[in-house]
TrEMBL record:
<protein>
    <submittedName>
        <fullName>Uncharacterized protein</fullName>
    </submittedName>
</protein>
């Protein structure tokens, strides 16, 4: 009940700074996780388009064979 000491006055700013640093760390970790998910989705889309291109190239490469077969008939 007497005069507050310097140790009691320094505890509050320390608690506040720890809470703020924890909140900033939480926001940073959330941002990193979201960024990684976005990059993973972008890579999946690129892979899907690559697969489509491969199938279309295979189909395009078979057209001359089909024409040659039809000319024989």
């Amino acid at each position: 009940m007497g005069i507050p000491t310097t140790t009691n006055l320094n505890i509050q700013p320390l608690k506040i700074s720890i809470i703020i640093m924890g909140f900033l760390a939480l926001i940073s970790i959330t941002g990193i996780i979201i960024n990684n998910k976005i990059i993973a989705r972008k890579n999946q889309v690129a892979q899907a388009f690559g697969s489509i291109e491969i199938y279309l190239k295979k189909r395009f490469d078979l057209i001359p064979n089909l024409i040659a077969l039809l000319n024989k008939l």
